[in-house]
Amino acid sequence: MSETKRGRILMTGAAGGVGTFLRSGLAGLGWQVRGFDLVVPDDPGRTEWLVGDVGDAAALDAAMRDVDVVIHLAGIPVEDRFERILKSNIDGTYQVFDAALRAGVPRILTASSNHAVGYYERADFRDAPIGVDVRPRPDTYYGVSKVFVEAIGSFYADRHGLQVASVRIGSCFAEPLNRRMLDTWLSPADATRLFDALATAPELGYEIVYGISANKTAWWDLEPARRLGYEPQDDSDVFAEKIAAAEDQAPDPEDPEYRYLGGRFTTRVPPQD
Ligand SMILES: NC(=O)c1ccc[n+]([C@@H]2O[C@H](COP(=O)([O-])OP(=O)(O)OC[C@H]3O[C@@H](n4cnc5c(N)ncnc54)[C@H](O)[C@@H]3O)[C@@H](O)[C@H]2O)c1
């Protein structure tokens, strides 16, 4: 571990899947983590905990005190009706940025997603990986909200000088769950390495990075993250045999799961309830 000083992180959505990995990983590197979520997890561990809604500006003002870095994960992580996405992911993200600005927090790392660019086709990136500078091609209302997350980060960086990174997270789980995730997997340990690198990078203006491990089959460009100090150490290849045994059919390149960067999200419709 480098000698870089670690301070206090405010992590929204800290009770969720990614938050649970990052809370313990970043605390292990010396960060003091303050969790902010609608719920308290079963085991908050060493995390200081605040229950609140990212739509609540006063609750965010209290949460931002003495914070060095915000990691904004809170929101709906799948397709949903636009009104719900609007409240949780779009207005909620605006509230987090504005509260950070009011409090003078210098750096925000946000969870964008591969679904901000989900309509890109794998067949078009055989010779070179897909870069972070492609135009947005969201695959859902959820993906649209992630384009907003990237856009407000860029705006607050340019207008207010905030240091911002948007992480287009692939699939952050303990292990890849299917064949697509062999390409898109972000191991919990690499997620910690990536967010720690972004939190400590000496120079940060506005950056978009892909958040995946060093997977042999990956087709997303990791160089922008590596330039900021990310050194992934995991590779989904160790799970390839297990997944091949579970999915014995060869993948159909026309199946949206394999055709598009966003996989099956390109066919999702919002629930009607
Ligand atoms: N898990 C992945 O592989 C993946 C991939 C791409 C992007 N992401 C993004 O990473 C983030 C975390 O994803 P996750 O898989 O951990 O999701 P998750 O649903 O497990 O966690 C989200 C957390 O946010 C909290 N939350 C929701 N609305 C809130 C609100 N209004 N105020 C406060 N807290 C609220 C929830 O209670 C939950 O604990 C999300 O923004 C998601 O879109 C995740």
TrEMBL record:
Domain NAD-dependent epimerase/dehydratase, chain residue ranges per copy: 9-178
Pfam families in alphabetical order: Epimerase
Region feature Disordered, mapped onto this chain: 245-273
Keyword Chloroplast recorded: no
InterPro entries cross-referenced by the UniProt entry: Epimerase_deHydtase, NAD(P)-bd_dom_sf
Keyword Transmembrane helix: no
Family: Belongs to the NAD(P)-dependent epimerase/dehydratase family.
Name of this protein: NAD(P)-dependent oxidoreductase
Species of origin: Catenulispora pinistramenti
